[in-house]
């Protein structure tokens, strides 16, 4: 069996090597000739999977090691009887921790207390739902807008216009869709961006085109709101002027924790085994590398907020990713798309909060409870 795989799928050989010959290719430029004699195609978000790519191939199964599937023409695959799988939720914790790091950094830079903010979550799926739980564990008031998955508590549920007008922090977690009852392409258009209150923060880690980037840039030029972008229109050729106007800008890496990427590979491996009726021999937990930072100890007088900030920043600080992007673009040695894709390809190892064991010496049960609410593994000593 010939398996053509995006070269940025980590551990592709480890998972798929026992199932066939794995051929690695750059996903962004993958073309029909490269998949013509493949049986299986494994992609990430940068490969457009459609009739043009596959109509003359013998591919029987396609999998994307991602949560989003806007790059895949699933209707066409279905029509042709080609199997398809993706990895829902593989990187949800990674994106949540990106957003928590953003909020943590901005609360210090802009001088606000998170407990006094209203956070509006648009899209309550794997990412939005988990973000909601972590924020609630911190005692933060949240509003939720999702026409397909209404909030469990009525006081959280909000129409889009209301949420935009009432939230101090707005975080987008919808897929990119162009059809259906509630399409999200330019969901945040001129009307919606106009509803965001002066002083509010908009975070987009969903897909670039969910926000009309030119309208956003116009609003940011007025200097009365803050935006954070991980995803951009026209990736990888992002607008440098927009980067200059956002407080934090990163190259679509919110979901790039090592756990998330390996989970993504493992999930599509399991799906392929199910599809072809193969036994699964490789286990995700058995191939997950041990983190460099394994534990951290706090003494008895530590307060919950201080412990969470310290642990969170030790595991992930979004400013490192923002710096890498700005520095690389400022050097002007490579074109914008080359920089954007290089930073993604060479992304340094980043771990999730659950990789850190937090040791607490005589700390109160509240500190333990709050750290656990943010996903850290806590041991009381
Ligand atoms: N920046 C990054 O690295 C990553 C980005 N993503 C993006 O985030 C998106 C969300 O990820 P998940 O939570 O894992 O997906 P999901 O499919 O679990 O959740 C998406 C939610 O959005 C809701 N939704 C759909 N249309 C909506 C609309 N018009 N208004 C409000 N809500 C709407 C759905 O009902 C669903 O509950 C993905 O589709 C992907 O595009 C996902 C992972 C990593
Ligand atoms: O899972 C998704 O959806 C994402 O946005 C991925 O994190 C994107 O990563 P790549 O597939 O572009 O490497």
From TrEMBL:
Binding site for substrate: 45, 66, 256
Reaction(s) catalysed (UniProt annotation): 4-phospho-D-erythronate + NAD(+) = (R)-3-hydroxy-2-oxo-4-phosphooxybutanoate + NADH + H(+)
Keyword Amino-acid biosynthesis appears in the UniProt entry: no
Keyword annotations from UniProtKB, A to Z: Cytoplasm, NAD, Oxidoreductase, Pyridoxine biosynthesis
Cytoplasm listed as a keyword: yes
Pathway(s) annotated for this protein in UniProt: Cofactor biosynthesis; pyridoxine 5'-phosphate biosynthesis; pyridoxine 5'-phosphate from D-erythrose 4-phosphate: step 2/5
Domain of life: Bacteria
Subcellular location: Cytoplasm
SUPFAM superfamilies: Formate/glycerate dehydrogenase catalytic domain-like (SSF52283), NAD(P)-binding Rossmann-fold domains (SSF51735)
Residues that coordinate or bind NAD(+): 126-127, 146, 174, 230, 255
Residue span(s) of domain D-isomer specific 2-hydroxyacid dehydrogenase catalytic: 31-276
Xref: InterPro entries: D-isomer_2_OHA_DH_cat_dom (IPR006139), D-isomer_DH_NAD-bd (IPR006140), Erythronate-4-P_DHase (IPR020921), Erythronate-4-P_DHase_dimer (IPR024531), NAD(P)-bd_dom_sf (IPR036291), PdxB_dimer_sf (IPR038251)
Domain Erythronate-4-phosphate dehydrogenase dimerisation span(s) in chain numbering: 288-362
Main location: cytoplasm
Enzyme class: oxidoreductase
Catalytic machinery residues: 207, 235, 252
Domain annotation D-isomer specific 2-hydroxyacid dehydrogenase NAD-binding: ranges: 109-254
Free-text function comment from the UniProt entry: Catalyzes the oxidation of erythronate-4-phosphate to 3-hydroxy-2-oxo-4-phosphonooxybutanoate.
PANTHER family membership: FORMATE DEHYDROGENASE 1 (PTHR42938)
The protein's assembly and partners: Homodimer.
Family, similarity comment: Belongs to the D-isomer specific 2-hydroxyacid dehydrogenase family. PdxB subfamily.
UniProt protein name: Erythronate-4-phosphate dehydrogenase
Species this chain originates from: Kistimonas scapharcae
Gene: pdxB
